[in-house]
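User: Hi! I have a protein structure encoded as tokens and I'd like to know what sequence might fold into it. I'm fairly new to this, so please keep things simple.
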């Protein structure tokens, strides 16, 4: 059995992404870039080789409460926010699941071997304290 070059390219392009995580935290009100836990507090994923960040998924244990409040999960690479991957939850939206997926060819964020990948969150005045779990989608 033989495969064409086109077939192999298509298989790679459509291959599922890997996931980094879970990152987790119990939310607190009015936080700015508060670190989420990856195994132990303050830890980061270290990229074993070059690749691309292609998405972020986040889930809350309950919808946030408090009029006009928001929670945003951010991906940081080497201490720099990657705004294209922000997952936003609002009190008005009452959502408990959010996902951002980037086009793998046009918009993916390149990473290099040794890059530190973290997920942090920002909150504005939430009145409850749900837990948030997030995973970063990567192609390595």
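Assistant: Happy to help. Inverse folding works backwards from shape to sequence: for each of the 140 positions I chose a residue that suits the local structure. Here it is:
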């Amino acid at each position: 059995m033989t495969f064409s070059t086109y077939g192999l390219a298509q298989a790679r392009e459509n291959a599922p992404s890997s996931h980094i995580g879970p990152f987790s935290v119990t939310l607190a009100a009015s936080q700015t870039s508060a670190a989420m836990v990856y195994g132990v507090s303050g830890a980061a994923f270290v990229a074993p080789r070059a690749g691309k960040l292609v998405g972020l998924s986040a889930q809350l244990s309950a919808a946030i409460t408090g009029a006009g409040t928001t929670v945003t999960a951010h991906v940081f690479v080497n201490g720099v926010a990657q705004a294209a991957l922000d997952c936003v939850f609002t009190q008005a939206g009452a959502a408990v699941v959010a996902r951002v997926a980037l086009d793998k060819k046009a918009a993916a964020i390149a990473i290099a071997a040794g890059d530190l990948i973290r997920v942090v969150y920002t909150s504005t005045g939430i009145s409850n304290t749900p837990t948030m779990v997030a995973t970063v989608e990567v192609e390595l």
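A useful reference point when you look it over: Residues 1-12 have pLDDT under 50 and may be disordered. Feel free to ask if any position seems puzzling.
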